Amino acid sequence: MKEAYFPTIRSAGYLAYLDAFAIEPDPDTNSAPHLLSFVGPPEVAEAIMARLIMAKHAYVHHPLFEGSIRYARYNNCSYGKRFRSASNNMLHVVAVSEEVISGEVLIERTPKGLRRLVHQALETETNFPIHDLWLDWFIRLLVDNERLIPLRTSPGLYGYRLDGIRAFQETAFVALKDALRNGVIENPASQVTKEAA
Fold it and tell me: How many whole angstroms separate alpha carbon 21 and alpha carbon 5?
């Protein structure tokens, strides 16, 4: 019989069960986490969180990611939300980075929800409107130009980090005009004409 496998997070001999994460994709950056959700005895969960806040390393063992993580910019304990379970006296820690709080990192439970968050962020970060017909093309453009960085996430989570979209908006606007001119993406006006006919 095969042993049950539980994803874990450990640091300095403390071990807790990991149920969700969103982590930077580059392993050379010590894979800074933007979201961690883990459960363990209160003293263990608190010790792991304290070590992360002090920018100490923790080790994640998960089928989709295995390696060292470290909160490089997790400076304030108030960003971590703690939920105490009545049964078994376990502590559930949900910690998010400052980048999630500020909107530089977008995390959602569905691709559709993430698409909506990206659309809202782009409307804020650019000086021109982005029609829903153009959004998927625009997301590909930003990902290809490393302005929208996909995060490594556990199942059921999806995420991007925004990286210099305002500085890229002039280039993006030129690419958008070219794509419209060349018929790569649809002009919303032509859709209205089709519906009227």
Answer: 17
If you search the block for the tokens 């996909």, which residue do you land on? Answer: 150
pTM score? 0.81
DSSP 119-147: HHHHHHHSSS---GGGHHHHHHHHHHTTS
Closest to 161 (Cα-Cα) out of 172, 152, 148:
148
- The Cα–Cα gap between 86 and 76 comes to 26
Of 52, 67, 100, the position where a domain reaches its end is: 100
pLDDT tens profile 142-187: 999 999 999 999 999 999 999 998 899 899 999 999 999 999 998 8
Q: Give per-residue pLDDT as tens, 17-75.
A: 998 999 887 755 556 788 888 988 888 988 888 888 776 778 888 888 877 877 655 54
Nearest CA to 31 out of 66, 75, 63, 6 is that of 66
In the numeric block, which tokens belong to residue 10? 């450990």
Handedness of CA 169, 170, 172, 177 (dihedral sign): positive
Whether residues 174 and 90 share a domain: the answer is: no
The DSSP bridge partners found for residue 162 are 148
Residue 29: DSSP 8-state: G
Cα 195 to Cα 184, 186, 188, distances in angstroms: 20, 14, 11
Residue 156 lies in a domain: yes
What is the number of domains present in the chain? 2
